[in-house]
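1st attempt posting a full record on here, be nice pls
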Amino acid sequence: MNILVVRTDKLGDFITALPAMYVLKHHNPDNKIIACIAPLNEALALSCNFIDEVIVDDGKSSIFEFAKKLRNAKIDVSLTLFSNTRVAFAQFLARVPKRIAPATKIAQIFYTDRIKQRRSEVKMAEFEYNLELTKALFSDINLEYKQPLLEFQDAQKIYEVFCANNDIEKEIIAFHVGFGGSSDANWNLDEYEILIKEVLKHKKYQVVLTFGPDELELYEEMQNRLMGENVVFYLSLDGLIYFAKLISNFKLFVSTSTGTFHFASLVGTPTMTFFADSLFASSKRWKGIGDEKLQKNFMISQDKEKRDAMFENIKQDIIHAL
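the predicted structure (as tokens):
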């Protein structure tokens, strides 16, 4: 069976779809899993051995070109994990025989099977809702998946070369201070500087700051702030897969709830992550797909007193983690 799984939004959102694709493939190895994704997630999708084919939608080509791509894939059934009018109508035009999606938004009129999930109630995490949706196709499907979900044979070698090039002889605690507008809560740069210096004080771990390719300004600002400190600054210009291999070896990855957090959880890295204090943006909804025992999640309050108290607690948590 040719199964199209659609998730055409950001990196973190796409990662929440990967367990669903994994269980669909493992339910029957003869299933051909076709991922329909945004361009930024293509390399990651191609690295997953449970994804057989990738269809990239840039959101700019005509709806008819998009539909033609889908029609050429000879899809038997589609599972749209997050819908919009474009992906819904394209599947309708492509005449995909069975089209499954959550019963939300006006786009649901283009699907043959509309499943009520009420995701806004956040009774489970986003990736768990995605897994539940696979039951609409196979009622007896096993929803368990391996953790970490993504592993690389040469990850250790990549890490060793990175350490040698940067004179690193200790285990790495990484901070990713940016968030690209995809998170509703984060510490400010002054607060991150305090946390970083707290780790540096103990001289037990190497601190690495990671930055996305579009965060050059932030990269330079943090270099100025931490001038003279024993910190390695890594601007990620080597692609997502290199970054995945690298961070899979880190001792701890500290960040807000953004795509890089989901990436770290995907490859099995322990995380310390900051979420907004609201149900919609909470860790209950957006926890990582990795082992929960490796995730320390904090909800940052908008109340100044509560926020300040939490910050002091996190400082202590980092010290105890050392």
